[in-house]
Predict the 3D structure of the following.
Amino acid sequence: MDGLDALKGKYLEGISGAGDESALEEIRLAALGKKGEISLKMRELGKMDPEQRQATGQALNALKDEIDTALRAKKEALGDAALDARLKTEWLDVTLPGRPRGQGTIHPVSQVTDEVTAIFADMGFAVAEGPQIESDWYNFDALNIAPEHPARQEHDTFFMHRDAGDNRPPHVLRTHTSPVQIRAMQDQGAPIRVIAPGRVYRMDMDQTHAPMFHQIEGLAIDRDLSMANLKWVLEEFLSAFFETRVATRFRASHFPFTEPSAEVDIQCSWVGGQLRIGEGDGWMEVLGSGMVHPHVLRAGGIDPEEWQGFAFGIGIDRLAMLKYGIPDLRAFFESDLRWLRHYGFASLDMPTVHGGLSR
Ligand code: PHE
């Protein structure tokens, strides 16, 4: 019996000191396994006399239970400790702020294009498009600009290179969006109501000129359109765009593709060096316009005896400079991130006539 106390001390101590489950299993086998110390002692019971057998049997069973219980408790404790350790290493702080992600902005040219498109869409104008590399027929001839016409030089045209000996007329980088007028007439026939936003190219570079810039062409053709319709449409447009009532002044002018032609000024004032549109008694030119020339209608396959219409061309970049107070056109195309962040627009604020054009 004394031997049992020693056994108990040995095993309980071993169990409490076990560092992991396999050490624990070794102890279990040594004590309670088939050839374990306690199992062997159980086997010896048969050789004892009844009295001794009962006393020793009880003591052995109690010892076996005690070791068993200690083993289970230790096993559970080891499991908990392992889980704790794992939770500690895999710990995640869900309250940490997220990693910052760079957010782009909408370029003022895109913003203004969207604003202008929204306003004209509201007046029933669809969007038309044409190529930036044009034949000189679409860019000039069809628009009543004859080969020797000074406008070809005035436009400071970029001509596409042709091989020596190739005498076909060169293609050009379109100098204005007016060739889209011809393409729209050819594609759709009359009546027409379209605007054509896009890039145009001229050899020119200073604070208010870049070799690539943007225009929006407008074209309306119907059975009895007049300058009155043109004036109304432009005043509606300019007032919606500048978000204030804007008076216009039509000045007689000349474009080969319109007759009569007019340059359109908007009312403005300069107060303390600040431009205010729609007030005061100053005028500033913003666009060219006129009634589509019969030659141009014919070039587009439309009979000028039956149809007439008006056209206009506006500089998008210039509109952006005026509306958003941007002083230098060249910066538009330098991709300077500080400039883009400063003058850019939030990407989810799509301009609409009902929801507001700008924020
Ligand atoms: N195409 C002309 C320009 O670029 C503008 C314009 C368009 C004028 C339509 C009249 C009619 O200067």
Q: What stands out?
A: The chain has two domains: 2-89, 107-346. Residues 172 and 335 are 26 Å apart (CA to CA). The longest strand covers residues 258-271.
